[in-house]
Design a protein that fits this description.
Largest sheet: 19 strands, antiparallel
Helix content: under 10%
Structural class: mainly beta
Strand content: over 45%
Shape: globular
Number of domains: 2
């Protein structure tokens, strides 16, 4: 795959990733509404990473009426030009005003940190244009059942049970824009995931308080996971954040999170820090182990064009019996948020002897 083709397709993806994008809608053979979306028509059907290279997908959706009420049946197929591997997912969702239940079967590429949105537009653009792919990937095959709030409400909880077979995947491309001036430019290696069956369940709770942007806001995130199979383990994390509004259009945000695990988690189930979600200024998997702790502080000033931010991050990961805060990783930097926070750019420096600099770009969470 040529670099020019990859840039062009991702540019089309960004241009069409809006609610006004046209879908192919057909009435179906029995009057059931059906929808077909192909390639850049939806932002999640075109992506770029160092395993798949350019990955193109298609999705069909039908909404039949059943004795259980209306269902949403969705089938997605995807082909990566780098690994030349066919991925697929088939799901059935039943949604009411109070909850959403989804049963799925899949054979797909997965990221070890789902909250970081490594399959989104932002990470795809950073990988292709800057050569910075923050995701770490493995392949999973199996099925799951999930209980969560309806899509129109914040995801304050999520219950999931699953049975999956995990496989390791290798980096399959080094194509990126910096290759034009640096022949040595290449992506970092992917994680060495452990292979085997995993049967488990996970629970996420994320209550939030305060929606007025001029008042104090707070939130908590609780995560627990238990699994048996070729890897038997349990892990738990607890995090919290608070934003305080100050005079002179200033605000102070504080965030902290810690977690640990028991048993023998696989490599893809250990805790890692590094990257924009956990520790800016450092590459992903800068540190990892059975336990971790991290925190960050941000001082923000609002202007007519957006918000300027000064921040500092700190984190540690490793064996919980050998915690040494003197070995924690620290960074500091500045950021700029534009378009009501939809676009944000952070530049951070490591506070160690290297003083290395790293730039991160974020887009809205739906991308």
């Amino acid at each position: 795959m040529g670099l020019t083709a990859g840039v062009a397709l991702l540019a089309v993806q960004v241009a069409l990733a809006s609610p006004t994008a046209t879908d192919f809608v057909t009435p179906g053979l029995t009057g059931t509404p059906t929808t077909l979306r192909v390639g850049p028509q939806r932002p999640d059907l075109v992506r770029y990473n160092r395993v798949e290279a350019l990955s193109l997908g298609a999705r069909a959706q039908a909404r039949p009426r059943t004795p259980l009420g209306p269902l949403s049946l969705t089938g997605t197929v995807r082909w990566g030009l780098g690994d030349r591997h066919l991925n697929g997912r088939l799901g059935a969702a039943h949604e009411t005003l109070g909850r959403r239940i989804v049963v799925s079967g899949y054979h797909e590429l997965a990221a070890i940190d789902e909250r970081a949105r490594h399959f989104g537009v932002a990470n795809s653009l950073m990988a292709l244009v800057v050569g910075q792919d923050d995701g770490d990937y493995y392949r999973r095959s199996g099925g799951s059942a999930e209980w969560a709030p309806p899509t129109a409400r914040p995801r304050t909880y999520r219950l999931r049970a699953y049975a999956e077979y995990h496989r390791d995947v290798d980096k399959r491309t080094d194509v990126q824009l910096p290759e034009l001036w640096d022949e040595q430019a290449s992506f970092r290696p992917n994680i060495d995931a452990d292979e085997g069956w995993e049967y488990g369940m996970s629970v996420e709770l994320g209550p939030r308080w305060g929606t007025d942007l001029t008042q104090t806001r707070a939130g908590v995130h609780i995560f627990g996971q238990w699994a048996v199979g070729d890897a038997e383990y349990a892990r738990f994390s607890l995090g919290g954040e608070v934003t305080l509004e100050l005079p002179a259009r200033l605000s102070l945000s504080l965030e902290a999170q810690s977690g640990t695990s028991w048993g023998s988690p696989s490599a893809q189930r250990l805790w890692y820090i590094g990257g924009p979600l956990t520790l800016r200024g450092f590459d992903p998997r800068a540190a990892g182990g059975e336990s971790f702790g991290r925190g960050r502080a941000e001082l923000e000033r609002s202007f007519s064009f957006g918000r300027l931010v000064v921040f500092s991050d700190a984190g540690w990961a490793g064996d919980r019996t050998d915690i040494d805060l003197d070995e924690s990783l620290r960074s500091a930097g500045v950021g700029l948020a534009l378009i009501d926070g939809i676009l944000r750019v952070d530049g951070a420096w490591r506070l160690d002897d290297s003083r290395r600099f790293r730039l991160d770009v974020y887009l809205d969470q739906i991308l």
